[in-house]
């Protein structure tokens, strides 16, 4: 059967709707974002009918995406894997040849390449915290950065917290999985845990709740710990806080890339902070924090439980200590025997 005409925008819309029931919200968002680049490429190439796609054109898309986004191998793989799944689905509805998906080439990763090495250095984090404590004490950016750096929370866990989940007297957070009320967390019920907080972190949270937190509720009538004037802070909002505060120019007033700050879009527009080569995501902050904890001789099981990752995942994806650093840490223990 010959493929039936279908434009890229409609195809992606149908694909996301069809998979809505089987994909987690975070995965839906990721697929939508990745396929958005494919739609943009189709527009630049004047491709308004998926029937026009060939293996050669899909290869050109891969090269375009690599050049356009400056993608690291793991990111390129995730982009092409999603496209392959999408093209395979298109074949099931007669929009492209049924074997076209097999011509979508995805890079193979070498050992260790499936985990990115980008992380925030502890000295940089200290500088950011000093800046926030001085100029933005108990602001939304201060709260979110602290919860990632000191509590090792993922942005999804920050998004899920209610005011009642914070116990100032016990100096603790209660992280809960509440998918029925719009706040699922990573690892679901296995991700639920109590987290002890330092006195410094509690002081910031107390000031945030008492003086600076917008008094708003979410669509379920819950009181989110991290709120905006419109309700619970969205995942992308939390991410934007982190991208913006990790720009070097934000806390140091200087640009390591020799850009004029007044002419740099990433510097003058917080919504474009991600475009700064030195800004990092919440995941990179968390990775840096976990490495900092491990370098500070906190036992792996303690870090594993606090961060809600297995020791195997901790070793592969988060622990950025060198083998020499690990050796020197072991040596300190051996000296006590």
List keywords for this structure.
single chain; 337 residues; mainly alpha; hpI Integrase, Chain A; 2 domains; three-stranded antiparallel sheet; two-stranded antiparallel sheet
What is the strand and helix layout of this fold?
Elements: H1 8-18, H2 25-44, H3 55-69, H4 73-92, H5 122-135, H6 140-149, H7 155-160, E1 166-167, E2 172-175, E3 193-196, H8 199-212, E4 227-228, E5 231-232, H9 235-245, H10 248-252, H11 265-268, H12 282-295, H13 300-307, H14 311-318, H15 323-334
Antiparallel strand pairs: 1-2, 2-3, 4-5
Helix pairs in contact: 1-2, 2-4, 5-6, 6-8, 6-9
Detailed description of the structure:
This protein is mainly alpha-helical and 337 residues long. The protein has 2 domains: 8-103, Tyrosine recombinase, N-terminal domain (DNA polymerase, domain 1), CATH 1.10.150; 122-283, Intergrase catalytic core (hpI Integrase, Chain A, Orthogonal Bundle), CATH 1.10.443.10. The chain has helices spanning 8-18, 25-44, 55-69, 73-92, 122-135, 140-149, 155-160, 199-212, 235-245, 248-252, 265-268, 282-295, 300-307, 311-318, 323-334, and strands spanning 166-167, 172-175, 193-196, 227-228, 231-232. The radius of gyration is 22 Å and the shape is globular. The protein starts with 7 loop residues before the first helix and ends with a helix. Residues 111-116 have low confidence and may be disordered.
């Amino acid at each position: 059967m010959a493929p039936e005409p279908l434009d890229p925008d409609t195809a992606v819309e149908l694909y996301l709707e069809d998979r809505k029931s089987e994909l987690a919200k975070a995965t839906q968002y990721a697929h939508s974002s990745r396929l958005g680049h494919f739609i943009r490429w189709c527009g630049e190439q004047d491709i308004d009918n998926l029937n026009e796609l060939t293996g050669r054109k899909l290869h050109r898309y891969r090269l375009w995406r690599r050049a356009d986004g400056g993608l690291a191998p793991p990111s390129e793989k995730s982009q092409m894997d999603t496209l392959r799944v999408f093209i395979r689905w298109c074949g099931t509805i007669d929009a492209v040849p049924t074997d076209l998906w097999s011509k979508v080439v995805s890079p193979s990763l070498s050992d260790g390449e499936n985990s990115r090495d980008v992380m925030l250095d502890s000295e940089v984090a200290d500088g950011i915290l000093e800046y926030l404590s001085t100029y933005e004490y108990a602001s939304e950016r201060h709260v979110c950065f602290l919860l990632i750096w000191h509590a090792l929370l993922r942005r999804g866990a920050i998004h899920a917290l209610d005011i009642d989940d914070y116990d100032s007297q016990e100096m603790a957070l209660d992280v809960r999985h509440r998918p029925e009320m719009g706040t699922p967390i990573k690892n679901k019920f296995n991700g639920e845990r109590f987290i002890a907080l330092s006195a410094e972190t509690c002081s910031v949270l107390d000031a945030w709740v008492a003086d600076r937190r917008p008094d708003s509720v979410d669509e379920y009538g819950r009181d989110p710990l991290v709120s905006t004037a419109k309700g619970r802070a969205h995942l992308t909002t939390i991410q934007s806080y982190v991208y913006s505060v990790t720009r070097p120019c934000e806390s140091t007033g200087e640009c390591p890339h020799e850009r004029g700050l007044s002419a740099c879009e990433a510097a003058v527009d917080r919504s474009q902070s991600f475009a700064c080569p030195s800004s990092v995501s919440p995941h990179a902050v968390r990775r840096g924090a976990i490495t900092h904890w491990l370098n500070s001789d906190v036992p792996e099981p303690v870090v594993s439980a606090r961060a809600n990752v297995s020791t195997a995942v901790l070793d592969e994806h988060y622990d950025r200590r060198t083998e020499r650093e690990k050796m020197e840490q072991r040596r300190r223990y051996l000296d006590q025997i």
